[in-house]
Amino acid sequence: MRDGSPRVKRDREERDRLVRQGVLVPDTDPHLYRFSRDHLFGSSSIAGGIVKDGNCSGPQSWRRPSDGKSIKDVFG
Asked: Do residues 26 and 33 make contact, with C-beta atoms less than 8 angstroms apart?
């Protein structure tokens, strides 16, 4: 979300940094950003927090399309 959600999020500084770097750019929807290019995150939780604009447990949230298993299911 361009303006961020109403609650303070732990990943807001990271989101703002990605906007300054041009990794996140305004989408055609005036409320959203989109990725302009691939970006490698050092943490699955930060990646999830940026994508959903909220705190996120990456290991529980990210899933493989092939079988629906989470990172936590696969790697423990």
From this structure: yes
